[in-house]
Structure formats: C-alpha cells, structure tokens
C-alpha cells in the first residue's frame, strides 16, 4: 500500500489553456456534423458518440459502511442504497454492425443523490461515464478534435470497408498485445477485440474531484457469473446485433455484482490531471472499493426500459455533485458537447430528455 497521502483538491490543479473555447467550438461543429448526418440517414437522432447500445440494466448501488475519511467523500460520504441505470455501448457516433470492433462504454446513472450540484446539473442524479480501457486516446481536446474530424468523414459510410479494416486492425492489436503493447489508438479505430461487455472492467479514464481529494473511477466485475465472461469473444459474424443478443440471453439468468472503485491521486507528476493518456500506476495509486453494484436477472433489452433510458435520458460527466467535478482539459471540453448532443436528440426526435425521479 502507498505511504503518501492523497493530493488535496484545489482549483489550481487544473491548467486552463487560452484556446480551449476555440477548440470546444470546433468539437461542437464536428459533432454537429455527425449528429445531422446520422439523424438524416436514420430518420431518428442518436448520440454523437456511443450511439449504439447493447444493454440497458437496472440495479442497485450500495455505498460501503465504515469507509476511512479519505474515501468517505461526496456521494460516498455515508452508507446508502441507490437505484442505478447502466447503458453498455460502442463508442462510434453511427450505428454499426458489431463485426466492426470498437471500444465499449458504460454509462451509469445513480438516482436520488443529495448535495450541492454542478453548474446546470438538473435533478438529483450522479452520472459516471467509462470505457473498457484505462487511458484516453488523445492528450488534449485539440488533438482529439483532429481525430474526430477524420472519423466524421467516415460517419455512416463504407460499412463493408469498415468491417474489413476492423478485422485487419484486430489482428494488429492482437499482435501488439502479445508483446505488451496494446494500442488505444488502434482500438479506437476498430481494432478492439469483440469480447463480452459484461466481463469487462470499465474506467473513467479522466480525473474528477473526489470531495477533498482527486480520483479516477472504475467498475470491476466480481461475481463468478461475470468474471467467467472476462475475455470471452463473441461471434459477431452471426448477426449485426450479436453483442446485444448475447448479453440479453446471458442476463436472463445472471445475478451480476461489480465493485465501484476509487483511485486517489497521490502525486500529480506521476498521476497528471491534464493528460489522460497517462495511466495512473495502480501500485502507486491503488483502486479501492467504495461501493458495490448489483443487478438481478432481467431482460436487458426490454422495450419499455430501452425507451426510458436510451431515448429519454442523457448521460453526462457534468450531471452530478460539485464534489465530483470533472477535471482536466478533456473533461472541460465534454460539457458543451454532451449538452449539444442531448439538445439535438430532444429537438429532432421531439422526445423530452429528463433526469429520472424515484
């Protein structure tokens, strides 16, 4: 265990660049292109990223009792039980056949969370948005914008070519993995292995305020029914929605349990705030469990639940408590883009998007 104390949160930990608003405007314009392209093609607006959902799960988050002071922060300051909604997805902004292998996402909404809210954060919820890898593909929003512009040009085009390219990239990434060099860039372009999303561990990738401290988050499967699926590949040649169908069949009998974990920043040089391409070494800054999440057997693609969560909810890292303020350049850029995506979907689909009340 580390001997250093956790870094104290201070606004001075962030390094805001003078050109960030210009970059954010570029992101909004590029995401707007993706939103308009897919909405016109589908006749229905979808998210600008993580458009395709594979499963909608409802469960319970239980905050642990007796947490030490450094971990008893924000919504985890006191033991309690909350309803959660979890959406598993693929990161593209268009809805692609599952044979096009891309990183997977997990968005989790915790309902009924009390406390001071972030600016413009409606309701009484706390959102966590994660992916199945510990680092982000770009150091800054400006660098991410360059990649996004390239991807926007391929939105909803040449799906056959994308499938072939995905197969090639999967082979490349597998070769890199054998020598310990798995590439998030290759994975983001379609080289991620098509493994079962229920067995994956998900990471916030970027840092957040954690009350008096700073942390990254993860959600780790711990029940045997889930860990038995870790690394299990899904045959995506049988159906365009093979992942959704596989998870739906599995969740009929699975009682899932995950650990929600916190990784406290202990050294801002080794665990930087502004560079999400750097993995925080878990030896120096270990993940510690602060809550458990459970989900009983259920239909993970029930029509009513899909409408309620996939259509009528938005997930944003800027929806939640001031005690869990998103930190860093990438997170600052995400606020406006998340809002734009939700407003576009709401207007185009004529379907109100709102925070759930339980």
Description:
There is one protein chain. Helix 1 runs parallel beside helix 2 (141-152) and helix 1 packs parallel to helix 8 (329-349). The chain has a single domain (11-348), classed as Catalase core domain (Catalase HpII,  Chain A, domain 1, Beta Barrel). It is 29% helix and 20% strand. With 358 residues, the protein is of the alpha+beta class. Strands 1, 2, 3, 4, 5, 6, 7, 8 and 9 form a 9-stranded antiparallel sheet that branches. It has helices at 20-42, 141-152, 159-178, 184-188, 224-227, 242-250, 303-311, 329-349; strands at residues 52-63, 80-90, 104-111, 125-131, 202-203, 208-210, 213-221, 256-264, 287-295. Strand 6 and strand 7 form a beta hairpin.
Look at the structure and name the CATH superfamily.
Answer: Catalase core domain
Beta strands, count: 9
Query: Would you identify the regions where 5 or more consecutive residues have pLDDT less than 50?
Result: 157-183, 185-191
Helix content: 25-40%
Biggest sheet, in brief? Answer: 9 strands, antiparallel
Summarize model confidence as the mean pLDDT: 86
Quickly give the structural class.
alpha+beta
Distance between the termini: 39 Å
**Structural domain tally:** 1
From the coordinates shown, what is the CATH architecture? Answer: Beta Barrel
CATH fold name, please? Catalase HpII,  Chain A, domain 1
CATH classification, class level: Mainly Beta
H/I helix tally: 8
Range of strand content: 15-25%
Radius of gyration: 19 Å
Secondary-structure element series: HEEEEHHHEEEHHEEHH
- What's the shape? globular
């Amino acid at each position: 265990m580390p001997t250093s104390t956790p870094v104290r949160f201070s606004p001075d930990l962030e390094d805001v660049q003078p050109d960030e608003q210009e970059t954010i405007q570029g992101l909004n314009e590029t995401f707007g292109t993706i939103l308009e392209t897919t909405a016109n093609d589908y006749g229905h607006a979808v998210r600008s990223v993580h458009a395709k959902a594979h499963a909608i799960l409802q469960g319970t988050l239980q905050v642990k009792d007796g947490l030490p002071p450094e971990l008893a922060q924000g919504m985890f300051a006191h033991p309690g039980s909350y309803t959660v909604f979890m959406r598993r997805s693929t990161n593209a902004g268009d809805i692609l056949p599952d044979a096009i292998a891309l990183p997977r996402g997990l968005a989790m909404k915790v309902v009924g969370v009390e406390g001071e809210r972030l600016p413009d954060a409606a309701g009484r919820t706390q959102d966590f948005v994660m992916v199945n890898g510990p680092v982000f593909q770009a150091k800054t929003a400006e660098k991410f914008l360059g990649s996004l512009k390239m991807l926007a040009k391929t939105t909803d085009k040449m799906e056959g070519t994308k499938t072939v390219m995905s197969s090639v990239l999967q082979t490349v990434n597998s070769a890199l993995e054998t020598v310990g060099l798995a590439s998030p860039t290759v994975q983001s372009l379609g080289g991620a292995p098509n493994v079962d999303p229920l067995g994956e561990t998900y990471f916030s990738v970027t840092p957040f305020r954690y009350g008096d401290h700073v942390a990254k988050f993860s959600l780790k499967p711990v029940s045997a029914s889930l860990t038995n699926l870790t690394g299990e590949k899904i045959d995506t040649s049988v159906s365009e929605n093979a992942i959704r169908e596989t998870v739906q069949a599995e969740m009929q009998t699975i009682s899932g349990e995950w650990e929600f974990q916190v990784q406290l920043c202990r050294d801002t040089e080794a665990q930087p705030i502004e560079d999400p391409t750097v993995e925080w070494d878990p030896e120096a800054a270990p993940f510690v469990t602060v809550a458990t999440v459970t989900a009983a057997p259920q239909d993970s693609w029930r029509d009513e639940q899909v409408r309620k969560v996939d259509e009528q909810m938005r997930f944003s890292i800027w929806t939640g408590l001031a005690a869990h303020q998103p930190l860093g350049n990438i997170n600052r850029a995400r606020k406006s883009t998340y809002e734009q995506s939700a407003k576009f979907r709401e207007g185009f689909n004529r379907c109100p998007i709102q925070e759930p009340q339980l």
